[in-house]
Amino acid sequence: MSENILRGPSVDYIPSTTLGQYFFESAKKYEKRTCQIDPFSDHHESYASVRKRSTRVAIEMQKRGITFEDVVVTCSSSTIDTAIPIIATFYLGAKIANLDITLSVRQVTHLLSLVSPKMVFVEESAIGLIEKGLENASLETEIVVFGESSKYSTFSDFVKFQETEDQFEPVVVDLEEIAVILFSSGTTGLPKAVCHSNRSILNFAFFFCNSSEHLDVILSFSSFYWITGVLFLTSTFIGGGHRVVCGNKVEAERTFKVIEKYKVTYMFIAPILSYHLTNFENYQSYNTSSLRIIMAAGTPLSTTQFNKLITIFPAVDIIVCYGQSEVGMVSLFDTKFDKKFIRTKNKSAGKVVTGITLKIVDPETNQIMGPYQNGEIRLQSSGVMKGYYKADSTEVFDDEGFLKTGDVAYFDEDGCIFYVERLKEMFKYLSWHIVPTAIESVLLEHPGVKEAVVFGFPRNEEEGEVPAACIVVNEGSNVSENEIQDFVSSRVSDREKLRGGVYFVEGILKTPTGKVKRKEVRKSMLECLTK
């Protein structure tokens, strides 16, 4: 069955250095080039400046006791300052983890408790979020603020001149030391902390660069909470290109202006955010001829939306890709070799990238599937995570050492991958994974709720599915839908609110062993609601 195992090309060279050493030396190599641009102020920062500022931050962090054994966290929108403490953490051989400012207090508390950071860099608007999370997790962590603060140290304190900055060298650690901690979507509950080593980060970044073109000027709206934020930062230091840092919100006219002014060549965007661009009627007023590739990831891109993007960007290759926090980029179409498939197979997530070995198996029997047969994606790569932070990871690898992705897909006779669905029960709203059990645990905290099941309610192509809930109330309870909605809303992130509604039922379908039949519940509810 080896003919049904898909293998990406091999890569010629990957340096045997730590991330800190690689970033430090690359910044020297490309010191006169632009590394990042703030389009709001039109500030161009060179690699030399990034190296100087990150060196100063690293020295200040050392003075405050940060060592290679510690975890440092950022919680900020993407600005040209956000990457500096991340790079400084690489220099110290320490571990960096990144939170998103849109997370709920409940989520932040959980994630902070997973990694127990010694220092947190946070934007002003999220100080309260971090304070509450640290308090709930019973952590004594130093807070550093991007912006102004009379209570905490500020980032500006960290980038001041250091007497030893000209003599600074990155700390040398083992290449298998954890360098980056990402947070998985969590298939059965709260997210897990995904650990990537110095080696795995460099490996999957080199694999991506080897399978990609036109990374000269990158526009991405990902925060560093996502693996794509880390990927594109590392990719710029590999090729000496630069990032245009527009924050995490897509505003159509500003995006077209940025592409025109800064000659963007490569744009990464979640499919849900692409609707902002296709709904903008004045796109012909802007010159976007520099743009060569639009990469979309996170959710499938419909054929209708694909064609709308082609209308606006007729000379651009629009590539749908597939990846995971546990391994980085898994599949995409290489514009050098797969151009014939980019428009004819726009429903595909491309071919296996450099350095990846992939099989699709029956998750019950482990039998390897052939073309057009659905099964779970499993893969091997030197870019795969080391495991979950301070947690047992053995169950996520099969007997041959392949990572179990939990994603269902198939491939065709050309080796093109087609994503189908999650093996588990998650769904997506606005490109974010929604974990039903996480919301159910909140519902069950309400004294009037006896049982609860959460499912995805189809809204529209742009939004995906919104959370909805079936509720069995305790005897004698007269709880209302509004009360349940308010109770959940105050305890979850905005995207987890029960926009699909709350439905009171007498009982919930279960297996003989007591497990909720979520798919059957969803199916029966949709049938009732759409009659």
TrEMBL record:
Its main location: other. Residues 23-389 form the AMP-dependent synthetase/ligase domain. Residues 439-515 form the AMP-binding enzyme C-terminal domain. Transmembrane segments: none annotated. It is found in: Peroxisome. The keyword 4Fe-4S does not apply. The keyword Ligase applies. One of its GO terms (cellular component) is peroxisome. Keywords: Ligase, Peroxisome. One of its GO terms (molecular function) is CoA-ligase activity. It comes from the Eukaryota. Pfam families: AMP-binding, AMP-binding_C. Belongs to the ATP-dependent AMP-binding enzyme family. This is Luciferin 4-monooxygenase.
